[in-house]
Amino acid sequence: MKAYAFLKNTPKTTTPRGKTMMLDKGLGLNETEDLLATAGDYLDYAKFGWGTAATMDRELIQQKTAKYQAAGVIPYPGGTLLEVALMNGQFNDFLKETQALGFGGVEVSDGSTTIAGSTRKQVIQQAKDAGLFVISEVGKKDPTLDHELSIHERLMQIQADLQSGANYVIIEAREAGKNIGIYDAEGNIIEDELQELAKGGTDQLIFEAPLKSQQVALIRQFGVGINLGNIASNEVTALETLRRGLRGDTVGQL
Ligand SMILES: O=C(O)[C@H](CS(=O)(=O)O)OP(=O)(O)O
Fold first, then answer.
1. Cα–ligand 1 centroid distance for 195 (angstroms)
2. Cystine design at 225: which of 15, 21, 107, 204 (Cβ 3.0–4.6 Å)?
3. From CA 51, how far away is CA 55, in angstroms rounded?
4. CB-ligand 1 contact for 140 (6 Å cutoff)
5. Could you give the CA distance from residue 82 to residue 90 in angstroms, rounded to a whole number?
6. Nearest residue CA, atom 6 of ligand 1?
7. Coiled-coil regions in this chain (predicted)?
8. Contact (CB, 8 A) for 66 and 124
9. What is the ipTM for the molecules in this complex?
């Protein structure tokens, strides 16, 4: 039983908690174990950020993915790693290795590279056919290029990815959460862009929201059911308290 389970304001909302995607930037095995013991119940996806998975021994990655999977968390390598594999013409090998390492999903993005629409569709479908959970990502890592993407183009990409079979689409914000996608240079939400992106529904969107102020704003606006990503590994528990109205920013508001 959880501590203080009698408290009336702990999540009595009927809305299920939104998905939480955490950024794993290279946690050790013991850190992973500790994290899962304390916050595993509040975690859905663990992204091994960008190319970090390619810096570690295969056995270590396999041990980590096994721990995540046993806790019901889907681990997956960063979209950048898939982009590098695609750029090198090594996507089939990437897919095989991803499965051999025990990852349960992939992220299909074009944040750092350019990928033809037909290739993106094929990649999503091939990953799905291989039995992997697929999360795509919309947005560019270079702010100048990202600002060139119109809301209409983003919405079209979201639609196309979902039609190709993606389970969720991430709205890019990078690890820093500033000057990309729905955030301005200070990390504040650009309201009209958010509203436009959200108007078709947010159920299959995951908003990268690495900053507490962003998590608070999105939870207040859309409720506890909003899907949030790029949560730092030491902030997963703190995010759960926001979702439960157990931190000053959301006390009595959910
Ligand atoms: O897309 C992301 O949020 C991450 C982190 S960052 O952009 O490199 O800061 O990249 P990914 O390759 O998807 O892990």
1. 23
2. 15
3. 7
4. no
5. 9
6. 174
7. none
8. no
9. 0.97
